[in-house]
Amino acid sequence: MPDRILSGIKAIVAVNLRKKGKLQKEIAEYLNMDRSIVSHYLHGRHPSERVIRVSEEIIKLPVNNAIKIINSLSDDRDITSKVIKELYNAKIQVDPDRCILCGGCLECPYGAIYKDSNYRINIEHDKCKLCGNCISTCQTDALILKALPNKLEE
Amino acid sequence: MAINTEKEVCNGNIKIIREGSAEKRVLNWMDEQCIGCGICKDVCPVEAIEMGPLGAIFKGLIEAPKLDIDNKKCVLCGICASSCPFNAMDLEIDGNSIKELPQYLKVRKDITLNQETCVLCKQCEIVCPQEAISVERELPERKTLVLGEIYINKDICVLCGICAEYCPADAIDLIKNDLNPLNLNPYGDIVVDTDACVYCKVCEKACPHEAIEVVCYKCPFVKRIKIPELYKEIKGQTTIDKDACVSCSWCEKICPVNAIVVEKPFEGELIIKKDECNGCRACIEVCPCNALTFPKSEGQGLKGPRLVVNPEVCILCGACVNACPAKVLEVKRTKIDTVGSKIPSWENALKKLVN
Questions:
Q1: How far is Cα B266 from Cα B107, in angstroms, rounded to an integer?
Q2: B6-107 in CATH: which number?
Q3: Would you call A107 and B2 a contact, using CB atoms and an 8 Å cutoff?
Q4: pLDDT of residue B55
Q5: In chain A, which residues fall in CATH 3.30.70.20?
Q6: Do residue B103 and residue A119 have CB atoms under 8 angstroms apart?
Q7: pLDDT for the residue numbered A109
Q8: Which 8-state DSSP code applies to residue B176?
Q9: DSSP code of residue B117
Q10: How many whole angstroms separate alpha carbon A154 and alpha carbon B2?
């Protein structure tokens, strides 16, 4: 069941990428999957319409909730982070008005959060897998997932 | 992945420890240093600190820790450590105290002494409520300030000891004999300690037998007697224990030469609703500055005023407010003195202390 919904979400991402002019081959590489499956996605042959409907509902949720669900669908953080990045153009940001420098988030499993020479918290977005761990660790709601306007919608 | 935060309680002190792959943080709270002002509790962004029964603790009615830190709530941010005016809290990140790190914000208080100006009068040592000041003073011997001669004519002296009893400098001694049937006299001799004698002539005047002659040369030879100078003949040093100082400024207020400058952490006022005070003295016991008192009544049988504070030596820490069971006291702070790097979230937390 989670795999199918993830397929649904990947299919939506594939269609988005196609609209941006990406080739089937590039989409297959980005999502790390077989070209034939991407072809199924793009032609609406797979997954089923019902799965696509559920996937669309998930995507429409507020981004903080949506990423929790997407991350729970798979432990493959490469895929989940790519999907989230493509869907929301999202980044985790530190709100300096709220961050109390407690350092709780520094235990990022991907080493994407570090403290600079000023002891302030910073995020290395290239390493960030948008897993949302830090967001749930932070006691002062200082880490926020910020969805930037998607290039497609502009 | 949240890491476990451990708590260790040792000799009444609390350690909150969090060791992760990125850093090790240790929050230390020292019961002995803690005044129970509750500032840490007020600024804590996660409500991890709870105060103990302070009034009863300071009156010696019970033994209990002045506060408790919940390791399940504490995130080891260190705002408590940076705002504690009594150095009872400290946060170490990988072994470095954040109070030493310029990257952090802290509540500022300070005391500075100008040793060159200080006249070594020792009055600050007497008034300091925390015994944070010590004055060492070494004076030249008294004999360097006098000139004279003393002579006791032992042929006339009857060893009555009247001179010794009068001597203000305790400079005359009668030497006791080993009393026995072969040695009938209780005293064998009389001696003058010329290191102690100031040639005041009291013995000469007191001797009923005119056996003593004293000559004082202080007046004719006044120039030969050097007036001892501070930090030359008079040696000394004033030491201030900055960790123990609570910056009440009592010493500053009484220093006759303004050699001490104290910078207090807060500005504002302490409000006392006198009519509601039940006179339990908890506030007086808890106050680290001895700033509160019940004044003596003006006459026997007259009711004295309930409770007064001397704002000159109050630091507005709020310990009395926490200790008072009748909620008679209120601290109104208008300004906090801080130093170090700006951290917006920390400044917001400290704003809770201002009203």
A1: 9
A2: 3.30.70.20
A3: yes
A4: 81
A5: 90-154
A6: yes
A7: 92
A8: E
A9: T
A10: 38
CATH of domain B142-224: 3.30.70.3270
Three-point CA angle A66, A72, A75, nearest 5°: 130
- Out of B76, B101, B103, the one facing A102 most closely (by C-beta) is B76
pLDDT of A154 higher than 50: no
Nearest CB partner across the interface for B344, out of A97, A102, A107: A97
ipTM of the complex in this document: 0.81
* pLDDT at residue number A150: 63
Domain boundaries, chain B: 6-107, 142-224
Q: Which residues contact B195 (CB under 8 A, 6 or more apart)?
A: B141, B142, B143
* Residue ranges of chain B with per-residue pLDDT less than 50: none
- Distance (Å, whole) CA A31 – CA A39: 13
Using the Cα atoms of residue A18, residue A24, residue A26 and residue A28 in order, give the sign of their dihedral.
positive
Are residues A140 and B345, on separate chains, in Cβ contact within 8 Å?
A: yes
Nearest to A139 among B75, B348, B349 (CB): B75
DSSP string, B128-152: -TT--EEEEEEPPPGGGG--EEEEE
Contact B341 A98 (CB under 8 A): no
Considering CB atoms only, which of A102, A118, A133 is closest to B103? Answer: A118
Q: How far apart are CA B329 and CA B38, in angstroms?
A: 14
Taking an 8 Å cut-off on Cβ atoms, the answer to whether B20 and A109 are in contact is no
Look up the pTM and report it.
Answer: 0.82
Minimum distance, in Å, between the CA of residue A14 and any CA atom of chain B = 31
pLDDT number for residue A105: 94
Paired tokens of A71: 């991350």
Q: Is-cis flag, bond preceding A47, omega within 30?
A: yes
What pLDDT sits at residue B51? Answer: 93
CA-atom Rg of chain A in angstroms = 17
Numbered residues of chain B with Cβ closer than 8 Å to any chain A Cβ: 1-3, 20-23, 25, 45-46, 75-79, 93, 101, 103-104, 341, 343-346, 348-349
Identify the pLDDT of residue A153: 47
Whether residue B75 and residue A100 make contact (CB cut-off 8 A), yes or no, is yes
Predicted confidence band of residue A148 (pLDDT cuts 50, 70, 90): confident
pLDDT in tens, A77-102: 999 999 999 999 889 999 999 999 99
Structural fold of domain A90-154? Alpha-Beta Plaits (3.30.70)
Nearest to B31 by CA among B75, B59, B69, B77: B69
Give the gap in angstroms from C-alpha B96 to the nearest C-alpha of chain A. 12
Q: What is the pLDDT of residue B83?
A: 95
B74: distance to nearest CA of chain A, Å?
9
Out of A100, A118, A119, name the one closest to residue B45 (CB): A100
